[in-house]
Design goal:
about 290 residues; mainly alpha; about 0% strand
Length: about 290
């Protein structure tokens, strides 16, 4: 690209750049076709070699995994996809789609490549956090983003279930990338719920969250290790705390069983925090 072209781009808005890119695309289509052929060949060979089903219950094709030498291209195309998205709703949808792909990538490599699973986890955390940021940005501009916030909340609940399944497949007992992803979900769920402005939608989201967590705790697989179970329990306690703090219609809307569950989990989190403080004091005295 010439210096003159770059100078012209610097003074252009996004629409002008897109028009220019559309014209330039005709010149590079043959090159892109060749690149796709080069990338697709090793990926298809790798897929034939592994031939194992993806157990994560998310209906998406991950494509390349972090184990691939061409993974950097996958990341590049994702950033372009996010940049091309128009409006908060499309940006959130795009980021959630890519977050789903990272979960499937984790599932694909969990048994064989811990480093690749950790890489997919970091991308997952980034996309979830970015989705919340985009929604917040839209809200600051005066847009109604309650639907997008609900979408993020519902999606991350599905992700909890997927991460627990990946935990059952992991090759090693140490799975910090799964705990980190679960902690990221806890943080985003705690951030999203208070941002939903419509009280009915906020109440519906709270009910969905606590019901899902209650059901998931009851059916957590036996092969999931204690470190993941512990992180999941902390996640429940943290989110339950936020739901109780919101008060009013939000907490009273829960059924008696769900209400007791939320209260119990929030109290467990408080007890755990107190225990941690007591241990620190005892350590200091020693």
């Amino acid at each position: 690209m010439s210096t003159r072209t770059i100078a012209r781009w610097a003074g252009s808005d996004k629409s002008d750049i897109l028009v220019y890119m559309n014209c330039e695309t005709k010149k590079i289509i043959p090159l892109l076709c060749a690149l796709v052929c080069i990338v697709a060949f090793p990926v298809s060979v790798e897929a034939k070699k592994k031939e194992k089903p993806v157990n994560v219950t998310i209906n998406v094709n991950a494509g390349m995994t972090p184990s691939s030498s061409f993974y950097i291209l996958d990341t590049l195309f994702e950033r372009i996809g996010i940049w091309m998205a128009g409006g908060t709703d499309e940006e959130v949808d795009t980021l959630l789609k890519y977050a789903n792909e990272k979960l499937v990538e984790m599932s694909d490599v969990a048994e064989d490549d811990e480093d690749a699973a950790a890489t997919a986890s970091k991308r997952y955390q980034k996309y979830i956090a970015e989705a919340v940021k985009k929604a917040k940005k839209g809200q600051k501009k005066g847009n109604d983003v309650d639907t997008e916030l609900q979408k993020i909340s519902s999606a991350t609940l599905t992700h909890i279930d997927a991460l627990i399944q990946v935990g059952g497949m992991a090759a090693t007992a140490e799975t910090p990338y799964i705990e980190e992803s679960l902690e990221a979900i806890q943080e985003q769920e705690e951030n999203v719920l208070p941002l939903i402005e419509d009280e009915e939608k906020r109440t519906a989201a709270a009910l969905e969250i606590i019901t899902f967590l209650q059901e998931t705790e009851e059916k957590i697989p036996e092969n999931v290790r204690d470190n993941i179970k512990k992180t999941f329990s902390t996640l429940i306690g943290g989110i339950s705390n936020v739901i109780m703090e919101q008060g009013g219609a939000l907490f009273s809307s829960l059924g008696e069983s769900a209400k007791n569950f939320a209260r119990e989990q929030a109290n467990k989190k408080l007890d755990s925090a107190k225990e941690g403080i007591i241990n620190k004091i005892e350590d200091f005295e020693l």
